[in-house]
Every structure is written in structure tokens, then in C-alpha cells.
Amino acid sequence: MTVSKPPKWHKIAILCGGLAVAAAVARYVLQGTGGVYTQLSRRFYENDPTLGWTLTESSYVWLGLEVIAVMAVVVLAAIVANRWWARRGDRAWTWLRWGAHVDAALCVTLLAVPLVAFTSGSPPEGAQALLPTSADAASEQTSPVADGTYRVLTSEHSTVVATIEAGQEKFQGRFSPPTGEVTVTRGTWRGAIAVPSASIATGIDLRDEHARGYLKDTEHTTITVAFDGKRADGVIDGTIKIAGRTVARPLAVTVTPVTGDAVERLPAGARYLVTASLTISVTEAGLEREAFDSDVVAVVAKLVVGD
Length: 307
Known about the structure:
Blueprint: H1 8-31, E1 39-42, E2 45-48, E3 52-55, E4 60-62, H2 65-88, H3 94-109, H4 112-119, E5 148-152, E6 159-166, E7 169-175, E8 179-185, E9 188-196, H5 205-214, E10 222-230, E11 235-242, E12 245-257, H6 262-265, E13 270-281, E14 296-306
Antiparallel strand pairs: 1-4, 2-3, 5-8, 5-14, 6-7, 6-14, 8-9, 9-10, 10-11, 11-12, 12-13, 13-14
Helix pairs in contact: 1-2, 1-3, 1-4, 2-3
């Protein structure tokens, strides 16, 4: 028996789909960060009074424009299929009727998208989507460092972050784990810190793949920051080697001794929290300038160093 018009439940399903799109748009606006791509487990930075800017323990479902666009297409397809079916009646093709059923069912399932996003919660007040490149609560005061050799300790708080503008978005790539050591002798710092080029993580798998290609990670497996000089006014002469090219850049360095509850929260042997920041030119680094919206990339290394 041929059904001459769509069942009534289709209208309810399409209404659910419309509500889901509206709710997803509301979530996107409330997020306040923009963004094209959805991240299922996005973490933010909060300014810890002891450790400075650290990643939140919780992660959140962060909607992007692409998932909202897909949702809107599903609802629009359901509307078109149902109207076409209603217009043709008994003459509606079998595949069209089955397509209308599928689209209507999908409209109902779309409610899960904003539901899951809202249920995941929101970051704490004052949390930042990107790691700030300015001084944080733990590094506002620069402390002297005792002579000795210190190595970078493995910790979630040891990482290198690059702020990039590309694809009409501003985002960050995290590199880990950093390795290396620094020797301090009467105020002179010598050493190098390295991270694997392939470890870049931006929160989007496809973007990570593209980034590894720009960094030529198969040919140049590490990115290295080296330094040799006195820390005058918090600045040390240094270089960064990226994608096979070495560029001289000054490093702005702040140091905070590990004291108080930080001793319990950091790996054994931790002595100092070191934050080193620099900027590099995409052109100078030999990267593909056309792939970036800005020629400047800010790099921040947050390191836990100790014995």
C-alpha cells in the first residue's frame, strides 16, 4: 500500500531538528570563542596562583560552525523531502519516501548534539581559550637562579605552545614532551630545549596533519630552542631551529622557585618554574607563508626544571 503523504511524526521530528539547530547556535554564541571545527574534549587555561596558567582538569564539548552547518543541512533535507512527498502523493518515488523517513529520524537524533555540549559544562570564570603570552600569576616576579645544571622534568606543566593564525582562526599548537637542560653559571645561561615536531596538537586531527606537513616533521624531527648568554633584564640571546632553519631570537625568561603546595603538585626534584617566550616570523622560518594569516607566531615554553 502506498502512503500518499508523510506521516505526522515527520513534522514533530523536523521541529525537533529545528530546535536542535537553534540550541546548537545558542551554545556556539555562548562559547564566545568562534571557531570552525568542533572539539569533543577542549581544555582551557586558568591562572593558578602557584603554578601560573595551567590546563583545566575538566574538558568540554566545544561546538564549531561545521557541525551546525551539517545539522542545518539535515533539517533542510528533511523539509524538502517531506514537501516533495506531500506534493507528489502516491506518485512519490520509493527512495524519496525512505529518504524522508531517514531524514526525519536524524532530525530527532540532532537533539543530542546541543544536549551533550551543554551537559559538558563551561570553563571556570576567568579561564582563557589560549595560553596568554604575557606574565602569569606565578611568574610576575623574576627570581635569581642558583648556579648548577637543571634538566626539564616530565610533567603536564612542561610544554611548548605556539600561537598560530591560519584558516581565519587563531589557535594554539602544543608540543610535548620538552626535553633538555640548562646550565647556569654566575648569571649566564647555556642549554637547549627540544620538542618532537610531530607532537603538535591543536585539538583538530586534520589540522595537526597539515601542521606536521608544514613543519616537515619526517625530515626535521625536532624543534630546538638554544640559548647562551646572561639573563639581562629577563632576556637571553637565543636561537630556534624549526623545519631545518635556524633563526636568532631573544628569549624573554621569567623564573619562579618551587615552594609551598607546588612541591607536592610537581615531580620530585622540581626546583624552578621557567617561562620562556619568543616570536618568530613564518617567512624567516622558511614555512609556507600562504598557509598562514599572520607572519608572526608567538612561542611560549613553560618548563618545570630541577635536579
